[in-house]
Amino acid sequence: ERMEKLEEKLKRMINKVEEDDTATLTQLELIDDIQRLGLGHPFEEDIRKALDRISSLEGFNDSGLVGRSLHATAP
Predict the structure, then answer these.
(1) Element holding 12 (H helix, E strand)
(2) For residue 9, what are the CA distances in angstroms to 3, 19, 42, 44, 67?
(3) Which residue intervals define the domain Terpene synthase N-terminal in the entry (predicted)?
(4) At what angle do helices 44-57 and 21-36 cross, to 10 degrees?
(5) 61 phi and psi, to 5 degrees?
(6) Please, what is the end-to-end C-alpha distance for the chain in angstroms?
């Protein structure tokens, strides 16, 4: 039961919708950490949806970043 609660909490964190740059960076770091720990498989669909949402919020398209330089997006 505790594991299920932790999984649900992690899913909520992955799927958190905010248009704040700091929140987006935190969300990307969380996804990176999950994948580096080898825990990404159970959250694969949530991660894909979150990355799709982030890319649309941040102005990405299939050919790269639109209207912003990479230098401008660097932390």
Answers:
(1) helix 2-15
(2) 10, 20, 13, 15, 35
(3) 2-74
(4) 150
(5) -140, -170
(6) 39
Report domain extents, the chain: 2-73
How far apart CA 15 and CA 53 sit, in angstroms, is 9
- Cβ contacts of 54 within 8 Å, gap of 6 or more: 24, 27, 28
Classified as helix, coil or strand, 38 is: coil
- Note the pLDDT tens digit of each residue in 17-57: 776 777 888 899 999 999 999 999 999 999 999 999 888 87
24/8: higher pLDDT: 8
Name residue, tokens 């999950």: 34
Question: Who's near 4: CB < 8 A, 6+ residues apart?
Answer: none
